[in-house]
Amino acid sequence: MKKLTALFLALAMLLSMTAVLAEEKPAVPDPKSILEGVTLEPSKALYLDNHVEITGMGVHFNNYPTEFDGAYYFPAIEKLTNAKFMIDWRVQDGYETQVATTLASGKLPDIMTAGAYGIINLANEGAIIPLDDYLHLIPDIVEAVGEDRMADWRQADGHIYTIPTIVDVPGSQSVMIRQDWLDQLGMKAPETWDEWVAMWRAFRDNDMNGNGDTTDEIPLALEMGGSGERAMASLMNAFGIRASSDTQFCVLDDGTYTMVYEHPRFMEFLQAVQDLYKEGLIDPEFTMRKQAELFTVMDTGLVGSAMTWAERARISTTTNREAGDEDALWTCVAPIKGPHGDQMTQERKAVTPVWCITYAAEEAGKVEDILKVFNWNFTQEGLVLYNYGIEGKTYDVVDGKYVIKPEFVSNGFVDYRATGMEYEPFGGRWFTDAFTQCLFAGKTVDQLDDASQSFYNGLAVVNNDYFYSMPQTLETEAYAEFRGELITGAGGVCVLRDQCIAGQMTVEEFAAKYQQLKDMGLQQVIDQGAQAYATIMGN
Amino acid sequence: MVFAHLFFDYKLLRGFEGSKYVGFRWFERLFSNPNLLQYILNTLKLNLSALIFLFPLPMIFAILLNELRNLRFKKTVQTLSYLPHFVSTVVLVSMIMTIASPSLGLLGKWARAAGQTPINYLADPDYFVLVNVVSGAWQSIGWDAVIFMSALAGIDQGLYEAARIDGANRWKQTLHVTLPGLMTTFVLLLIMRVGQMLSVNFEKVYLLQNNLNLSASEMLPTFVYKTGMESRNYGYATAAGLFNSVISLVLVFAANHISRRVTDISLM
Exposed e or buried b for every residue in B125-138, given b needs 16+ CB within 10 A? Predict the structure, then answer.
């Protein structure tokens, strides 16, 4: 008996050790050690004669290194180009107030990101300079943007003010459904509006999470965005409204740029969503559901479908399973199809404005050097540094291809970014190849587990036929003046829209109030927007 | 200099020299804003409700504490009641949101356990005053009682002794000695509180706002903040801020006048 017990224990120990070893991932090196023992020769493409220090102020995101010297990226740029970036990174919350304080101080850095303060507002303040006359100094950036995307680079006044960041990957977000809930119900992924509504009703009525409470399921969870503007994006798309990122502007079928409220299907959309809300089919907390809370309700098994970052399909599946829901599976599916057959989703914005050059840099005579360094960032050498890091340390060259070392991509984008690669707060051009290496972590699609396959499908498969190019929110003079009061403020149209959805007013009342807002200045926002759109499109 | 903003489309970096003179445009816009009356009413409603319910509570709490004879228990209760005061508004609001969330919060779970449909307190304008008052009571009652505790300590003990000799019980002592002894402090604090009425509570209300409760939660100070700091319309924000200050001044004079007429106690 003792021998049998000992044998059993030994086997159990052996099995558990094997399991641990099998799951062990290669350790990620400390980002500070990446440059240790590396000799970087001055770049042949650009090495400034005089050492240049470039001061900056910008918005930082949490998933990148916060210690400026801790990342390999900036010390490497300094060694290669003789230019040192000294950027005062700030958090995104309240960044516009910090910009205002900086402007009021009169002491501007050489470069700054506008954030929520708005590029046109900075231009109107005289804080930044237009770059139209300097494009010859940044040929690699001009080429990376490309002729067909120039409109995304220009601002409402037709000028170019920024160094952009470019992402050549159209997918980012996806609609996703609890596949295991569908399986329990014997349903398949919906393909028509009626099937979507039927699925949401089934999720609402059948205690899908099995906790004995038939009232806690959220059939369609919605994320509010920064100030409540984003919640309706996926449903607007289902009604054929090609909305901007903040869902306030759209381009009609005839090419007219206008506010979404002018779209011929907007009132129908509003009525339909009001009905969904009344029936308890959409998130009752859609005006308060921040991204973190959305993830929490997904992870706690309360949500049946959602529209969010495709990566969440993998993460929430894992979290649900770890919490004991072993059958849980979030499946990314094609966008919601509306009652008229409209099916579309927002393409990830390829060209995003990042750095503005200030008048302080112009006064200090630094503009030319700054632009040269940014342009270098878009040359082959700069792009390899941005996408793959340092040869031998973060990537190897195999058969002429850059292959990121497994330890940096085994956890998707997390460790890759934490090391400082694809340093998005600074910007550059993110290659599809680097993106794909992170996504697959050295595996093929077939080798991915079901959750990772779903993530991959959401990013690169199921939405591919439905992307539309998001129009910009053009910051015209009228938009800058009336945004707070007539769009996002207490009596603004965005607030009225949500109040209407929640049943605090009828669609007819909304329409009457919207007309009042147009008379108060919203019509100017619409007119100036249309004019600006024509300008940047070269019409 | 501050008032000069009223007449300019002020640009931070350009200063007055580089900003456009707009005359009375911001006042015209403010007084033609169809929501202005709603903002004023919301401001008064939120602050008056807080004043009516929250202002007497610390005094009552201080009197009750004063009646406790077990010193250790009294100190413990007093210390525990202070603690919420040190919770920052951001944390407080985060706690309120967590508790009140119908999907994740305690209140939602209790409602479902009782077979009720959870109420979305933060999305319903009808509940905003309640949320504001209850959370305010939790946070401020202990700390605000400190002043009354010190005022209680200043009441001549001889008065209590005389009352006891005259046959007054504890309730009569409270009614005829304690309350009159606190009245001066109460009225002075009340007048000062009325003066601040339009500016208190700003952070909490601002952080609790969402698109569905704005019809009850948008008040003049939050409107001023959004206009100035979020929309960067400094002239318009200054005009609204000035209007807010004028109302505050009127309220202070009114409170002072009423107090003088009723109790003979006043600031001026």
Answer: eebbbebbbebbbb
The domain that holds A44 is classified in CATH as 3.40.190.10
Chain A residues whose C-beta is within 8 A of a chain B C-beta are 96-97, 100, 103-104, 106, 108, 116-117, 121, 124-127, 213, 215-216, 218, 224, 228, 284-285, 287-288, 293, 296-297, 300, 302, 480-481, 483-485, 489-491, 494-495, 498-499, 502, 504, 516, 520
Say if B6 falls within a structural domain. Answer: no
Is the residue at A371 inside a domain?
yes
More confident residue, A262 or B160: A262
User: Quick one: DSSP state of residue A335?
Assistant: P
Please, which pLDDT band fits residue A484 given cuts at 50, 70 and 90? confident
Q: What is the ipTM of this complex?
A: 0.82
Domain presence at residue B256: yes
Classify residue B9: in a domain, yes or no: no
Separation between Cα atoms, residue A34 and residue A240, nearest integer Å: 48
User: Are the Cβ atoms of B123 and A296 closer than 8 angstroms?
Assistant: no
Give the torsion sign (CA, B177, B189, B36, B53).
Answer: negative
Which domain covers residue A530, as residue numbers?
Answer: 477-536
The per-residue pLDDT for range A326-380, each reduced to its tens digit, is 999 999 999 999 999 999 998 888 899 999 999 999 999 999 999 999 999 999 9
Q: What is the pLDDT of residues B126-152, one digit of tens each?
A: 999 999 999 988 888 888 888 888 888
Task: Kindly identify which residue of chain B lies nearest to residue A484, measuring between CA atoms.
Answer: B231
**Partner A, chain B 207-236, Cβ-Cβ below 8 Å:** 210-212, 214-215, 218, 223, 226-227, 229-233
For residue B144, the enclosing domain spans 20-32+41-263
User: Shortest CB distance from B211 goes to which of A108, A124, A495?
Assistant: A495
In a domain, B73, yes or no: yes
Q: In Å, how far is A454's CA from the nearest CA of chain B?
A: 26
Q: d(Cα A215, Cα A15) in Å, to the nearest integer?
A: 42
